[in-house]
Amino acid sequence: MASPHQLKAVAQSCPEYIYVGNVRNGLSALLNESTDVRCDTCIHWEDGRCNINIYDNILTSLDQT
Predict the structure, then answer these.
(1) Any long-range contacts for 9-12 (C-beta under 8 Å, 24+ apart)?
(2) pLDDT tens-place string over residues 44-61
(3) Is this prediction's pTM over 0.90?
């Protein structure tokens, strides 16, 4: 189970992160500073996991730095 800190750190480093609100707003909304960037606010997050399977790779790379 990922911690809230991990979800945030991974999302902030993820090149594939897309805020789910952008899709809901017809891709016209821009990501702004008030948006909470976390994996669970990304369009690729389903059923408690990353559906494009890059979460673990990013988390591991963060641990190496």
Answers:
(1) 9/59, 9/62, 10/39, 10/55, 10/58, 10/59, 10/62, 11/37, 11/38, 11/39, 11/41, 11/42, 12/37
(2) 999 999 999 999 999 999
(3) no
